[in-house]
Amino acid sequence: MSAIKNLGSAATLLSDSFAGVPLAGLPGTCAEPGGDCSSELPEFSFEMDPAAVDAQAALVEKILRERIFTEANVESTDGDSTLFRLKGEALCSTGSAPASPACVQAANQLQLRIRATRSGKEGIDLGFQIGQNRDEPLVLKFAEKSIAVVMDLAETRSMVQTLAPEALPALPRVMVGKVELRLTENGKQDVTFSTSILDALRFELESNGDTHTFSTARASPLAELRMNAQDQRVSFALNLGTTEYSGPYGGTSALSRQKAVYSLSGLSYEFSAQEGQEDFAIAHVGLGEAQSYVSLNGTKLFTADLNALSGRHFDLSLAQGEGELPLIRVQPEFDLAASFFLAPLKADPQAEVPSFYEDQGYRVRLSGGGTPSIRPVAANAAKAFPGGLQVVSGELKLEGDGAAVTVPAGKCLVGQNPPANGSHPLLGHFASSDCP
Question: Quick one: average pLDDT of 324-347?
């Protein structure tokens, strides 16, 4: 896929071309006064012995058939559901040696049960229940062509509260929602891995007297990865719903501990790639069905709307262009409106707020020409061209309060550093220019 291979080169070129453009900072929720909450992520690696896995699976299957799902363990039946009570004698021994009395006692105190429910023609759901409240944190779903695991976060927290109350402070105060991981066989050497948020997730936790919350809406599926080995094809789709985080403003200024909210209306895109494919397309790119924003103490500091007047989504394609740089097309258009109201952050001495981010709105729009398209253009020292972005079809327009930069088809958007005297302090960093 030549277009993808060359995308990195294009990104580097554009970064160099517009390096002088000043960016905006948004409120952080880091508790450290200096704002340094960085840490290194641990590295994980593991090796799996296929023979050992098969042997373990065979042992588990034997135990389930001969010692768990037996008539002697049936506690109740209700329609298509049967409840099995798991006794310590069956759980604490593989049959080769007597069960440990201590293990048997501990297992019986857990009051373990499995709820087996028929699902469809060939399917069965196994719900694992624990404790006297019969909390059911985990359900395994087996169907003819798929297997899934569902975790209920509220039931998980309730289970911990019953079995290990001393561990409860380590969990969020509020912890609700259901998530699913699923593996589906579509055909020979063709599988799909998917994840879903079956019930909206919400977490609340207390830290140093402040409340942090995270929530994300139901999304089924949230993400899908399909791999077809026979066709040498892979596809991926993401459909994140409204997602929000709120927490205290960090640092030690007058704004410290005021409530900061980051609200993303959504995030979606999908693509597929196949061996030998030259062009690459990303479909249904969007930021949800409403405005995304950042607020502080109830006052919006930043808002963003993508394609608000054209369906809030667009399709993007990358094709092999001239040289090693891709041709980028969008359909129906790319229209991003972003407004900054960062003046309140000036109360924080550590925050740098340029005047053009205090109270201004900006818009970037690539439209017209049937299928508007652009391509990166490398610097050309012989023609004094600094490198930039050529509008191949349509029109590219950058707008701010009282200022605009318009780049028609055939012209290039270039960076200017420093901006011309008297120009807009932000948009003055951009200009329309002839292409080499």
Answer: 95
Q: 260: which strand partners? A: 247, 296
Does residue 354 register a pLDDT over 70?
Answer: yes
Distance CA 87, CA 99 (A): 11
DSSP 63-76: HIIIIISSGGGEEE
What are 125's two structure tokens? Answer: 């759901």
Whether the Cβ atoms of residue 279 and residue 318 lie closer than 8 Å to each other = yes
Q: What is the pLDDT of residues 14-62, one digit of tens each?
A: 566 566 666 666 666 655 545 555 444 344 444 556 677 677 767 767 7
- pTM, 2 dp: 0.84
CB 217 within 8 A of CB 190: no
Strand partners, 194: 182, 224
Q: Quickly list H helices, 37-178.
A: 50-63, 88-91, 101-110, 153-163
Q: What share of the chain is helix, strand, coil (3-state, %, to 5)?
A: 20, 45, 35
206, HSE (Cβ side, Cα atoms, 13 Å):
5
The CA distance from 269 to 280, in Å, is 13
End-to-end CA distance of the chain: 27
Parse the chain into domains and list their residue ranges: 368-436
